[in-house]
């Protein structure tokens, strides 16, 4: 499975593509950051993010897109920008009919490090180790995008079984 991980942000939107399946060694395909100028208006920044993500989708042809679920922060401006960048990533994937999965930061941290409270350095170190890289990806947004892709590859089989069970249950109607 090839997954594009997206760590959303208005100034730096981390992107990373990972190939692999659960229980097998993973391979980094590409990693980077879509950048927009901090002094640009938000609509132009969103267009820049859209163009960047579309380029990544065109070039790497992922089978799924994993996006960090926006969580409440103290700074409303920051969370709004993150949510807007996240929506752009989801829209780009949806246009292509790609499945989109949202993972919380603690889910991603737990998946790659074993602890939902891991710090950025621990996550970057584990991404480096899991993908057998020479050095941690920089900036941290890039490492976080790879961690999202890894998390999704490892969680996708369980999520698919859960979705199938829900569909089967709803098709049978209420249990009496």
Automatic annotation (TrEMBL):
Specify the species.
Answer: Streptomyces chumphonensis
GO molecular function per UniProt: crossover junction DNA endonuclease activity; DNA binding; magnesium ion binding
Q: Which family does it belong to?
A: Belongs to the RuvC family.
Against InterPro entries, the record matches this protein to: RNaseH-like_sf (IPR012337), RNaseH_sf (IPR036397), X-over_junc_endoDNase_Mg_BS (IPR020563), X-over_junc_endoDNase_RuvC (IPR002176)
What is the name listed in the Swiss-Prot or TrEMBL entry for this protein? Answer: Crossover junction endodeoxyribonuclease RuvC
Name the catalytic site residues: 7, 68, 141
Q: Which UniProt keywords apply?
A: Cytoplasm, DNA damage, DNA recombination, DNA repair, DNA-binding, Endonuclease, Hydrolase, Magnesium, Metal-binding, Nuclease
- Cofactor annotation comment: Binds 2 Mg(2+) ion per subunit.
- Give the location in the cell: Cytoplasm
Q: Which cofactor does it need?
A: Mg(2+)
Keyword Iron-sulfur in annotation: no
